[in-house]
From TrEMBL, chains A, B:
CDD domains: fer2. Residues 1-92 form the 2Fe-2S ferredoxin-type domain. Gene3D superfamilies: 3.10.20.30, Domain of unknown function (DUF4445). This is Uncharacterized 2Fe-2 and 4Fe-4S clusters-containing protein, contains DUF4445 domain. GO terms for molecular function: iron-sulfur cluster binding. Signal peptide: none annotated.
Length: 599, 599
């Protein structure tokens, strides 16, 4: 099967191949900040001639009706079923220094990393100057060269006519003979409590080459940050968790290098965006004070560390930049989210919610920033739920309930479901509520109640023993049941986040109606439809049309920080300017929380 | 035997015990910057009652006639021969912050190292500040706390009510629970090509507690710096030499700690004063460019390194300060010498000579500084001499020749001599010259010549086969002979240094007579009497009364740098302001050198 690409050579594929994969296999590197999940809308193509699979639900959400009418598709969701002529629409965007990533504002491109070639013949060694001084003079900087770099300096100067100098914030971090590939790369890592995402970025072009993700292997030592903090207090616990995350990042970097043919020694910086606990553990700094008096982080500011202390799979002389964080529970991931959504520079009233194991909320009003953190717990992500599982093959990801009963969609074709993932759980609760199967206190109604309300045709999906619940699917061996206890977990999460939402608004006496936008951040959040957010009651009805999605803004912020000193400077400003509201100390918070628990 | 000390308890000793040793054994720590060699004049005592050995030649040089008449002695050269009453005259000098060391000018005491105690109750954790910020705020500084310090921070803050913070140039380098001993210490190291000296200094009182020395174990890999540089080019050579010097320094530090009951973890800084090659090798930086194009050092400026990269026997979080150097052959040891003798601040005309394996000369005139380096070779120190040896038991250290022949003094009582040390060699050449046994070209006269000149009674000490020479001592098994070849080595050294001397004066057209002082620096130089310097022709006759000694100014400069930020700043200024003269490029230098070879 032939794929003819406008203004480009043709490539070959097989029936039902994914178009994005075909491009990648042929070194046509398209933007895919969302990792090819149909979320970012970056990989637009126009089908000029030929047939492909039907347009998907996700594409309908992202593409305008004009685009759809003109045959525009997302490459990552398109499978040609015949010879096909396509045009890559974002083709030209890779020119210039800065790409406008999916969910990334324009910003000043001035990366701390820079590679410069110096000719030995141009160096002036007079006046007893040291090699260090001579190179500094040539570059018109005043860098104190680190011990590790100095160790190689005399060899390079004796052996090379052209010397490559890599600078980081005007510090000379590497000196070597000019290499054939003079591109330099960075890795941007979002360390979530549950998921770790790493991106390979060409620092010179600003291009995000590829992005890979992995489960955070620390998960086996606790689903939430408090459990992890506790584990750090065990003998060797901190060391164990640190090794796990470093190994995990190293595996992702190795895969990125292999898949994209990049030499790891050309990677000179890793940017880390993480919540405060993950930040502390990554650095090997005991996070105990995050969870007990004095309830402080050990550090908050942006830090530059040396890779030699971490042995990440990049150049041994590389740097690691840790994005600054606000407090124990408002981490660097949220600071990233703030720059990605320009919350710190906007004049409208915007609420930013990162839904994850912890829910963090930032309210931007007239340039002021207010934030809080809600201990949502992992229920919304499908953890701590009896039938919960990750969003992988076999997971129920969509649930619909109508008069006839439960309809499910399962990840993977014709697979027997084995559990429910986060988006499925959100669906269940939304549908339970919509169909009146639970009361507003979050209790399952009995079969008797349903009968009284004329819903007896739904009695067959309700169970009352050993506890109340709803049957999602009956296997031969076992049933998948969502129980009263599971519902309680979700309810607590929803109550925590919604009360944070109202808490912030109340704090500055802002009426909800004056909000102009509600931004849903986070990889997980981007899987939640507006409907399920409204149905479950996480977002009040009146805001439905103001909801937008920003995807993994933690990773996007890390990319911005990699590529811009200005962004790093802004991030340092944000942590000084933002006001943190400790919900539990607010007057009447307990009452508010109880109210927010109601469906 | 009883030693009664004025204003102190009495101590016990045996007949002929050394008074200084008795003081040390009784924890009476006196100043002894010269290591108890009678050079610094710091350990003055007054004998009130009782008898001791006769006053020595060295004491007569150092003490005024008034002092001698009043019974003043140097403890290090005094051996009581009866019960004795003494007064320690420098007893009071250990008060206050700065001691006036033997050869050390007054300087501003403001050490980079500082220990501060912070009470946890005084810390203000409000506003989500991190522990790092809270401690910085309390100390009114802005230190970015290093990763290693952070790792311990939460434990210390949780567990301690009183927290010790150690600062280095306003950087927080250590945080711990307040310790019982809150003194902090530094180690000052002079790395010579031949000898390594380490001093233990109490940073809080400024007191030099003790000083120990050792042969530089790199000696087995070459006597001079060029041979060592060559060795670094061998596979693993640099690593070998670096390990040797680090082990050597560690042994000295261990001994200093044990002898003085100091916990190594209370030592927070090591200051290194060394020539440029030793500096590079200590840091593990290849010194190849010192010896070949571009004939540059890799670094010159003062450097602060982390002990974790060196594993010296001090606190693992401690710092290492490398004193700046001028060029490949004017090292940090000379920069030390310049501050110790205040050459950079004087208005008179002074010549400073450090006689060692390399001879470095600095000329100070009206505040200007000019310097050069002469490849003297190790002959003056007794190396590369057929009968040469170190100044240890069995070495001929003094030689006198008169009409009757050769008279020698040997180190150690009634020991059979086994060789000649540096000062003995200087004596030999001086005496050969004074007695007319050699001509002005440096050739031994024949027995015939001596007979013609009426010196036939010296014929018995002259040999002509296998080569010409002089017999210093006849053992049963072997004779100790100083040969024509040995003489040639000394002559080349003398020529190198003297031509540097004249070269600098000629460079600014300064007549020798206008010199107001000639300072002899270096541990070795302090063993050379004015007479031998004049006799051998190293210093012209007319300057005899202008000669002074400054001892080990490399070590003294390191102590000053440990105790004063101002001195470090001055040192950085010196390397910018000093002018280096490359002798070999001077007009007529070859002619000058040939002239200076003559006796």
């Amino acid at each position: 099967m032939k794929i003819s690409i406008k203004n480009h050579k043709s490539i070959e594929g097989n029936l039902n191949d994914n178009l994005m994969d075909l491009f990648k296999n042929n070194q046509l590197s398209l933007e895919a900040p969302c990792g090819g999940k149909g979320l970012c809308g970056k990989c637009k193509v126009r089908i000029i001639k030929g047939q492909a699979n039907n347009i998907t639900h996700e594409e309908k959400n992202i593409l305008s009706s004009d685009e759809i009418n003109n045959g525009v598709r997302l490459a990552c969701l398109t499978h040609p079923v015949s010879d096909i002529d396509v045009e890559i629409l974002n083709w030209k965007e890779t020119n210039g220094n800065i790409l406008s990533y999916g969910y990334m504002p324009e910003f000043n491109y001035n990366p701390p990393l820079k590679s410069v070639i110096v000719k030995k013949g141009d160096l002036d060694f007079s006046n007893n100057l040291s090699i260090e001084e001579v190179i500094n003079n040539k570059l018109n900087i005043k860098s104190s060269i680190s011990l590790e770099v100095m160790k190689n300096l005399s060899n390079v100067v004796c052996d090379s006519d052209e010397i490559e100098v890599v600078l980081h914030n005007d510090d000379i971090i590497y000196v070597g003979s000019k290499s054939l590939n003079n591109s330099i790369y960075g890795i941007c890592v979002d360390i979530g409590t549950t998921t770790v995402v790493a991106s390979l970025v060409n620092v010179y072009t600003g291009e995000e080459i590829n992005s890979l993700s992995s489960i955070n292997p620390q998960k086996n030592y606790g689903l939430d940050v408090l459990t992890r903090i506790d584990y750090c207090n065990k003998d060797g616990g901190l060391k164990t968790l640190q090794s796990l995350i470093i190994d995990c990042i190293n595996n992702l970097i190795s895969d990125l290098c292999v898949e994209n043919g990049i030499d790891k020694d050309r990677i000179f910086e890793v940017v880390i965006s993480a919540n405060s606990t993950m930040n502390h553990v990554f650095l090997g700094v005991d996070p105990k004070t995050l969870g007990k008096a004095p309830y402080s982080t050990v550090f908050r500011h942006g830090r530059i560390e040396n890779n030699k202390d971490f042995n990440l799979n990049i150049n041994s002389l590389g740097k690691i930049y840790i994005i600054p964080s606000v407090s124990s529970y408002i981490g660097a991931d949220i600071v990233s989210g703030i720059v990605v959504t320009s919350l710190n520079k906007r004049n409208d009233k915007v609420l930013f919610i990162d839904i994850g194991t912890n829910g963090e909320i930032v309210l931007s009003y007239k340039g002021g920033l207010l934030c809080c953190s809600c201990a949502a717990g992992p229920a919304l992500e499908g953890m701590n739920i009896s039938c919960g599982m990750r969003g992988e093959t076999g997971a129920i990801e969509k649930v619909k309930i109508d008069n006839n009963g439960v309809k499910i969609e399962v990840i993977g074709d014709e697979v027997t479901p084995s559990g429910v993932c986060g988006s499925g759980i959100m669906d269940i609760v939304g549908e339970l509520r919509r169909n009146g199967l639970i009361n507003n206190k979050g209790r399952f109604k009995t079969k008797d109640d349903l009968t009284k309300e004329g819903l007896e045709n739904l009695n067959h999906i309700i169970i009352e023993e050993p506890s109340r619940g709803i049957i999602l699917h009956n296997n031969q061996c076992k049933s998948i049941v969502f129980t009263q206890k599971d519902l309680r977990q979700v309810q607590l999460s929803k109550g925590a986040i919604l009360s944070g939402f109202y808490g912030l608004l109340n704090y500055i006496e802002m009426p909800m109606e004056s909000l102009e936008q509600v931004i849903i951040a986070g990889q997980f959040g981007s899987h939640l439809t507006k409907e399920s957010l409204i149905n479950i009651g996480l977002i009040p009805d009146v805001l439905k049309d103001k909801i937008t999605y920003v995807g993994n803004s933690s990773k996007a912020g890390a990319i911005m920080a990699l590529l811009s000193k200005d962004i790093r400077f802004e991030m340092d400003r944000i942590i000084k300017d933002i006001e943190y509201v400790e919900l539990s100390t607010l007057d009447g918070y307990d009452k508010l929380f109880t109210k927010c628990l109601k469906f």
